């Protein structure tokens, strides 16, 4: 194999490694967004079932909970993002969470498009690498035939 062929293959492998790493990172991000979307679904279902005088467990952090009685189901605090929250009535809270789910769906779609583009690029690079390997193999075979032809003449 030629030195330039080795360098070309090495560069293609580095590109493939970078793409695989990026795809893996994006897939993890998609899974995180899907998990967040699932939490929004759970919150919507919980709000729909919520009634005054219900006893619930409120997380305190560190796997610690406290029991609490719901006094007013029309005062629900919903995270808005960026560390901000707002008080909403039951319907408003559900609408906020549905909007959040739509935003998450848009983000997931965008990431999946990026993943598809990267996978297409990966396939193209793999095809180039395969073509390069075939060319190198053909060159080796030609060299071997020339060497054999040269020894037969002697």
TrEMBL record:
Keywords: Chaperone, Coiled coil, Cytoplasm. InterPro entries: PFD_alpha_archaea (IPR011599), Prefoldin (IPR009053), Prefoldin_subunit_alpha (IPR004127). Residues 128-148 have a biased composition (Low complexity). One of its GO terms (molecular function) is unfolded protein binding. Heterohexamer of two alpha and four beta subunits. Molecular chaperone capable of stabilizing a range of proteins. Seems to fulfill an ATP-independent, HSP70-like function in archaeal de novo protein folding. This is Prefoldin subunit alpha. It comes from Halocatena marina. The lineage of its organism: Archaea, Methanobacteriati, Methanobacteriota, Stenosarchaea group, Halobacteria. The gene is pfdA.
